[in-house]
Write a structure and sequence with these properties.
Elements: E1 4-7, E2 10-12, E3 17-19, E4 21-25, E5 28-33, E6 44-47, E7 52-55, E8 57-62, E9 67-68, E10 71-72, H1 77-86, E11 89-97, H2 104-115, E12 122-128, H3 134-145, E13 150-154, H4 165-178, E14 181-185, H5 189-201, H6 208-213, H7 216-233, E15 237-239, H8 245-256, E16 261-265, H9 267-271, H10 274-277, H11 299-308, E17 313-314, H12 347-356, H13 362-376, E18 394-404, E19 423-433, E20 436-440, E21 443-444
Parallel strand pairs: 1-6, 2-7, 8-11, 11-12, 12-13, 13-14, 14-15, 15-16, 16-17
Antiparallel strand pairs: 1-4, 2-3, 4-5, 7-18, 9-10, 18-19, 19-20, 20-21
Length: 463
């Protein structure tokens, strides 16, 4: 493999900001040194003067080709990972799904079949447990041996994904014993179904009612419940896509008690709100996701949680459905709108905008988007940092370039942008994945099949 020298840039990791050159050889970072202090030669030299040199992003929550509500997420592993690369993300952790009545292994095998040979960047899997029973609990141990070390359970979606408290407790107990990490979608799904049924009976059918029935209090209640179940089980818990300040308060309380409780939020909750969900006509359907968008005054609690480390990770929950033909399935009934937003390409740029806006600092940007997700899901220091021995997943990032986010220019396989017309400062220029250029000077030079499957170690925070 070619030796590559990245020179002249500011290397930004979760812990440091250093004006150093980076030498890449054999797909790994081999050395960092002050410019002028070394005599390195290389096959390729990348001039990063005036730019940031950052680790490739780690998006720990994506749903490529996910079946949902009678349709399937519009990004394949090929299109979705290519879009991720364009946005400076070099690793995704997607969710394999256990079918009701099926085994965990069969679900995992099905997702391997979808992804293998098609990904532009490296990938790993979590496992969604749809059917917690003696057999699937035993299988958790085997999956950990295969490098699938995290398991997602739902308090939402009765009849599809929902597990009752006893099932969640059993899975947490098993994880407490085998070192796995239980992730939870925390909303009270049975109560939400009652409210949705009542809203529809009143003739409330527009997209905005999706957010109104999925109340913040029902997110907070379920968050409290899974935290206490994890405490009883003696196991850590990771709460996905936290959107409401009341749910953040539950995480803060638990962490103040010293519990191994972790939380993730997503760009849509930081940058969008119920104002988007209430757009006229059916336009609000573009913003239907679960947990739902909240009123804008919830955002400050999320930003504060990211600054205080009560929220540790920003992932996308990338689950795109086209407006035409897919979101339109719920034209007469908000409960039939497929839940999910596109975002895998926008996360790194939106979080850099948060740096520009003063919400977070540069190192915190890298922490929540690269380093902590890699640590949380057993990929660090191979991923998530720039250090000798790490994979050469490196992004040359222009912090001064301005761009306008738009469906006309994005690379996700979806017919709208959740951030249409939003101006942001900062743009990916060049992306290396294991030392191989995937994006070079704003041109895609990668290919399907470059990305490899990553068996993961255990969560590095849950020992």
């Amino acid at each position: 493999m070619a030796r590559t020298l990245i020179t002249g840039g500011l290397v930004v990791t979760a812990s440091d900001e250093l004006h150093v050159d980076v030498l890449v050889d054999g797909g790994r970072v081999v050395a960092l040194a002050t410019p002028g202090s070394h005599g390195w030669t290389a096959d390729h030299v990348i001039d990063a003067t005036g730019k940031y040199v950052i680790p490739g992003g780690v998006d720990a929550h994506t749903h490529m080709e996910m079946p949902f509500g009678g349709t399937t997420a519009s990004d394949t592993f090929e299109t979705g990972t290519r879009a991720a690369a364009w946005g400076g993300t070099t690793t995704v952790v997607d969710f394999a799904i256990q079918s009701k009545g099926g085994s965990l292994r069969a679900g995992l095998d099905a997702w391997h079949e979808k992804a293998e040979g098609r990904c532009a960047i490296d990938y790993a899997f979590h496992m969604i447990m749809s059917d917690v029973n003696e057999s699937s609990l035993k299988e958790m141990d085997r999956l950990i041996e295969l490098g699938v070390t995290s398991f997602k359970l739902f308090t939402a979606y009765p009849g599809v994904f929902l597990s009752d408290d006893g099932q969640i407790l059993r899975a947490m107990q098993r994880a407490g014993a085998n070192g796995g990490l239980v992730m939870t979608h925390a909303e009270n799904g049975t109560a939400i179904d009652v409210l949705a049924e009542q809203a529809l009976a009143r003739g409330e059918r527009d997209p905005r009612h999706h957010g109104e029935v999925r109340k913040a209090l029902l997110e907070a209640e379920a968050t409290h419940r899974v935290i206490r179940l994890s405490q009883v089980a003696g196991a850590p818990v990771y709460v996905v896509h936290v959107s409401a300040r009341e749910a953040v308060a539950e995480l803060v309380r638990a962490r103040d008690e010293g519990l191994p409780v972790f939380g993730e939020t997503c760009p849509q909750y930081l940058f969008l709100s119920t104002d988007d969900l209430a757009e006229p006509g059916f336009e609000g359907a573009k913003y239907v996701c679960s947990t739902p968008l909240r009123p804008a005054d919830h955002q400050e609690a999320l930003w504060r949680g990211l600054r205080t480390n009560d929220l540790q990770v920003v992932s996308t929950d990338h689950c795109p459905f086209c407006f035409k033909g897919q979101k339109e399935m719920g034209l007469e009934d908000f409960s039939k709108i497929p839940n999910g937003l596109p975002g895998v390409e926008n996360r790194m740029d939106l979080l850099h905008q948060a740096v520009v806006d003063g919400h977070i600092g540069r190192r915190r940007w890298i922490d929540i988007a690269c380093a902590t997700p890699a640590r949380m899901f057993g990929l660090y220091p191979r991923k998530g940092t720039i250090a000798p021995g790490s994979d050469a997943d490196i992004v040359v990032y222009d912090p001064h370039a301005e761009q306008t986010l738009s469906a006309a220019t994005h690379h996700m396989n979806v017919d709208y942008s959740a951030y249409e017309g939003r101006k942001v400062t900062g743009r990916v220029e060049t992306v290396l994945s294991r030392g191989v250029p995937v994006v070079a000077d704003r041109a895609y030079v990668g290919h399907a099949g470059h990305g490899v499957y990553l068996p993961r170690a255990l969560c590095q925070y849950a020992g």
